[in-house]
Design goal:
The chain has helices spanning 2-14, 20-29, 36-47, 50-66, 70-94, 114-137, 148-166, 172-200. It is an all-alpha fold. Helix 6 (114-137) packs antiparallel against helix 7 (148-166). 72% of the residues lie in helices and 0% in strands. The chain is globular, with a radius of gyration of 18 Å. The two termini are 27 Å apart.
Length: 207
């Protein structure tokens, strides 16, 4: 979080749009409109947008409630709401312009990437929940052998970062900041509800 805020402050004070690395990355990953990679990137953009993220979060939370994993559902929703709130606040403070040659309509300020934040927050939350569920059933819960959810989460996050930059709607550093912010809210939300569960001793908040 400190890195995200610090870099955002530098962007605001310096008036920098894209850094040298950002410019070179956009040139490297640029797409031809109408190509197969272009439509893959657009699909990812639609799925990872506000409506897509809300639907995915709602479905995941509903499934967790049906499975009686109430704490996991609350943590997931809290993570997404906190992530969106912080992302929008930072955008309004930094006011970084988006790249000029966008290949996909996108409004608002650029830093940090809300898509990258949402992808990270949702995917990492679900990976953590799946891992803990495995540990609850494992004969040796002290060892984290169930790592494939995190591998899938990483693939999804990287795909979203590629999509946002390939469509020229975000700088690379926007997506990196979004990922860092997403990881931060996952940790904060999980820690918050862990403390609440310990203090209230509610059985429903232990899973």
């Amino acid at each position: 979080m400190t890195v995200v805020l610090g870099f955002g402050l530098w962007l605001r004070l310096s008036g920098t749009a894209g850094t040298v690395v950002d410019e070179r990355w956009l040139h490297l990953v640029g797409l031809d409109v109408g190509s197969v990679p272009y439509w893959i990137a657009v699909t990812l953009a639609e799925v990872g947008g506000a409506n897509g993220a809300m639907i995915c979060t709602g479905l995941a939370a509903a499934l967790l409630v049906l499975l009686r994993r109430f704490r996991a559902a609350v943590v997931l929703v809290t993570t997404m709401l906190l992530g969106v709130a912080l992302s929008e606040i930072i955008k309004a403070l930094v006011m970084r312009p988006r790249p000029h040659d966008q290949l996909y309509d996108s409004l608002g300020f650029s830093y940090p990437s809300g898509h990258a934040m949402g992808a990270t927050a949702l995917a990492m939350s679900l990976a953590l929940i799946a891992t803990r569920a495995h540990m609850d059933r494992s004969a040796d819960p002290t060892r984290w052998r169930f790592r494939w959810p995190f591998a899938l989460a990483a693939v999804w996050i990287l795909a979203m970062m590629w999509s946002r930059t390939a469509l020229q709607v975000h700088w690379l550093t926007d997506t990196i900041a979004g990922v860092l912010l997403g990881l931060t809210v996952v940790v904060l939300a999980d820690a918050f509800w862990t403390v609440i569960a310990a203090r209230t001793r509610l059985p429903a908040l232990r899973r």
